[in-house]
Write a structure and sequence with these properties.
Radius of gyration: 21 Å
Largest sheet: 8 strands, mixed
Number of strands: 8
Low-confidence stretches: none
Number of helices: 12
Structural class: alpha/beta
Shape: elongated
Mean pLDDT: 90
Helix content: 40-55%
Bound molecules: guanosine-5'-diphosphate
Oligomer: single chain
Strand content: 5-15%
Length: about 300
C-alpha cells in the first residue's frame, strides 16, 4: 500500500464520520440550523473553534452565491473552502538546510527523523543526523539505529552531554562534508518546564550563529492528542519560531482537524505527516490529498 493510501486509510473514520453526518443533516435547506450542526461536526473533528467559524463563513457565502442545492455540490464547496485555508505561505525546502525537530516527549521526533533521513536520501540528498537529545538515555542509540538502517551519517556524544556542544559539532561536520540536510534531534521537553525551554533558545542561538544555510524549526505533534497540541504550538512558538509542523501518528484515533486550527491561528503549515512506524511511512504533506482524505 502506498503511503497516501495509508493516510487515506487512517483518515477513513473521519471521512465516514464527516460524510455520514453531513448526509444526515443535509436536506437541501441551508439554514441556520444546518450551519449550527455543521459547526458541531467540524469542532468534534478537532478543526477548532476559529477555523470552523472561518470555514462556515466562507462556505455560507459561496453556497448562497452559487445557489447550491445538492449534497455533492455542497461537499465540493466545503472541500474548496477547507483547502483554501491550507494554501498559503508555503516555503520550499532549500538546501543546504538544517532542521531542528522540537516537541514534547514521545510525540515521535526520533522516529520522524529516521523516516525523513530515508526519504531525503532516496531523493539523492546527503543527510546528517545530529543526536542532540542527550537527556533521554536511549535517544542517541535509537537515532544510531535509524542512521545505520538508512545509511546516513550521525554526530553524537555521550548521554548527559551539553546539547549545545553536540549541535555545534553537528553543524561543523555538516558544513565540512557539504551535507544537504542536517536533521537535529532535540530532547523532548514539557512545554511547561521553562529551564528546558530556555535550553531550546540556546540551541537556536548556536544554529543562527554557526549554520550558513537555511535553518528551520519543525514542531513534531502527535495527531492523536487533538486539542492538546494547540497548547504545545503556542508555548513552543514563544521559545523557538516554528516554521512547520510534522504531524505523526495519523493512524489510530487521530481526526486530523488540528491541521486547520494551526493554520488559522498561527499561519503554520504541516510539512510532513507520518503514519505507523515503517521507514517509508512519512510523506510530504499535500493539502489537496488531505482534504480529500477527510471529506
Ligand atoms: P520522541 O520521544 O519524540 O523522539 O518519540 P519517538 O520517536 O521515540 O516515538 C515515541 C513512540 O511513538 C515510539 O514507540 C514510536 O515507535 C511511536 N511512533 C512514532 N511515530 C509514529 C507514528 O507515526 N505512528 C505510530 N503509530 N507510532 C509512532
Amino acid at each position: 500500500m502506498g503511503l497516501f493510501s495509508k493516510i487515506k486509510n487512517s483518515l477513513k473514520k473521519t471521512k465516514e464520520n464527516f460524510g455520514g453526518l453531513i448526509s444526515k443533516i443535509f436536506n437541501g435547506e441551508l439554514d441556520d440550523e444546518f450551519y449550527e450542526e455543521l459547526e458541531f461536526i467540524l469542532i468534534s473533528g478537532d478543526v477548532g473553534v476559529s477555523a470552523t467559524a472561518e470555514i462556515i463563513e466562507a462556505v455560507k457565502q459561496k453556497a448562497k452565491k452559487e445557489k447550491v442545492k445538492t449534497k455533492d455540490d455542497f461537499v465540493a464547496l466545503l472541500k474548496q473552502s477547507m483547502l483554501e485555508m491550507l494554501t498559503f505561505n508555503k516555503f520550499e525546502e532549500e538546501t543546504p538546510m538544517l532542521i531542528a525537530f522540537i516537541g514534547v516527549n514521545g510525540v515521535g521526533k526520533t522516529t520522524a527523523i529516521g523516516k525523513l533521513s530515508h526519504h531525503l536520501k532516496k531523493q539523492g540528498n546527503k543527510v546528517l543526523v545530529v543526536a542532540a537529545d542527550t537527556f533521554r538515555a536511549a535517544a542517541a542509540d535509537q537515532l544510531t539505529e535509524w542512521a545505520t538502517r538508512t545509511g546516513v551519517r550521525i554526530v553524537k556524544y555521550a548521554e548527559g552531554a551539553d546539547p549545545g556542544a553536540v549541535v555545534y559539532d553537528g553543524i561543523a561536520s555538516g558544513l565540512a562534508k557539504h551535507d544537504d540536510y542536517v536533521l537535529v534531534d532535540t530532547a523532548g521537553r514539557l512545554h511547561t518546564k521553562s529551564n528546558l525551554m530556555e535550553e531550546l533558545k540556546k540551541v537556536n542561538k548556536i544554529i543562527t550563529e554557526r549554520w550558513t544555510g537555511v535553518a528551520k524549526n519543525y514542531l513534531v505533534l502527535d495527531a492523536t492528542t487533538g486539542q492538546n497540541a494547540m497548547e504545545q504550538v503556542k508555548t513552543f512558538n514563544e521559545f523557538a519560531k516554528i516554521d512547520g509542523i510534522v504531524l505523526t501518528k495519523l493512524d489510530g484515533t487521530a481526526k486530523g482537524g488540528i491541521v486547520f486550527e494551526i493554520a488559522t491561528e498561527y499561519q503554520i503549515l504541516v510539512v510532513y505527516v507520518g503514519v505507523v512506524e515503517g521507514v517509508e511511512d512519512i510523506e510530504v504533506f499535500d493539502a489537496e490529498s488531505f482534504v480529500d482524505g477527510i471529506l
